[in-house]
Design brief:
single chain; two-stranded parallel ribbon; 7 strands; 51% helix
Length: 338
């Protein structure tokens, strides 16, 4: 919607994780170093945790882009609300294996045969499991068992686990002792500081051809960081809404005034509806946690497509209104009484 108004080649703050927008903050660079270290080891588990929207998925997609496909065959699982058997089916499907109607024993046999064929062809298999905080201990144990597939001198499968901070509690539970012994590195991806938040915003704008329009003053950057806490997805949401407002109101400069206006709109949208005032603080907190967890599992690509459809509809309505308002008034209409 606002791309042509500001001379941009694409939306700079889309929700969909896109490696072309990858920004190497201090935290992301360190997390990437851990992932690359894990790849160099060729075995075990690497665990990366971070808050919702911290950029874990974008990090991995950037890693996939840099992988040598002649040496590493990577697959990713993003739906983790599964039992252990279904997880095996997801693993088989991620590597392109037949899984429908197969028993657990058959699935394990197919996966092992596949991993051995990879090794014989000179490739290593890498499995990335996103949203690992949703995995049950039994499912995590099933993934650990897959790491038992080995040759005489090396593992046939390496696994990266990405999850929200609560996944660390799962790892620290007594039944996860054997898994912890196979974790070769862990890292928690924290938020960006104020300076990195500004650089992140400018990086995404420059990626789509930004040449200073719209301008964003120093105070606006401060307010953006204060509201988002340096979490990339929150920054994307706020800045996307900011550019949309700028387009609708034909603005070419943003100050704290515009930032606070957009923040007010966002906060108002999440106000408790009338009639729900009887909920106490504990209930409201539980409701908020539930909403956030459900939101984190939404397919972001579908969400982005839905938003694009809404934007196209709004553009059509705005163009129609502009035509109506700009059309000349018919001359034969009677004048208004004086």
């Amino acid at each position: 919607m606002y791309e042509s108004f500001y001379g941009l080649t694409a939306k700079p703050f889309q929700l969909k994780p896109d490696p072309s927008f990858y920004f190497g903050s201090k935290g992301h660079k360190r997390a990437m170093a851990y992932l690359e270290y894990g790849l160099s080891q060729g075995e075990g588990f690497i665990v990366i945790t971070g808050e919702v929207g911290a950029g874990k998925t974008t990090l991995v997609r950037n890693l996939f882009r840099e992988l040598d496909s002649d040496k590493i065959l990577a697959a990713q699982i993003v739906n983790t609300h599964l039992n252990s058997d279904d997880t095996l089916r997801m693993v088989a499907g991620a590597f392109g294996l037949q899984f429908e109607g197969a028993s657990k024993a058959t699935l394990l046999t197919r996966i092992e045969q596949f991993l051995r064929r990879c090794d014989q062809s000179g490739k290593r298999a890498l499995l990335v499991v996103d949203e690992a905080q949703n995995l049950s201990p039994q499912t995590v144990e099933e993934l650990r068992m897959l790491s038992n597939f080995q040759t005489d001198d090396k593992s046939l499968l390496q696994t990266f686990l990405l999850g929200q901070p609560e996944f660390r509690k799962t790892l620290l539970s007594p039944e996860m002792l054997q898994l912890r012994q196979r974790v070769i590195a862990t890292y928690h991806l924290g938020p960006m500081d104020a300076a990195e938040t500004r650089t992140y915003i400018e990086h995404r704008l420059h990626t789509v051809g930004w040449r200073g329009d719209p301008s964003i003053d120093d105070g606006a950057y401060v307010d953006i960081h204060a509201f988002t806490g340096g979490i990339p997805r929150k920054i994307n949401t706020l800045c996307d809404r900011l550019l949309l407002m700028g387009y609708l109101e034909e603005l070419h400069a943003f100050s704290p005034l515009q930032i606070q206006e957009v923040i007010g709109d966002i906060q108002q949208e999440f106000d408790v509806p009338a009639g729900d005032e009887e909920l106490d603080d504990t209930q409201l907190h539980g409701l908020a946690v539930t909403v956030l967890k459900e939101q984190s599992s939404i397919d972001l690509e579908i969400m982005n497509e839905r938003l694009s459809r809404i934007e196209r509809s709004v553009v059509a309505v705005l163009n129609a209104l502009k035509k109506i308002l700009s059309s000349p008034k018919p001359k034969n209409l009677p004048s208004e009484p004086q």
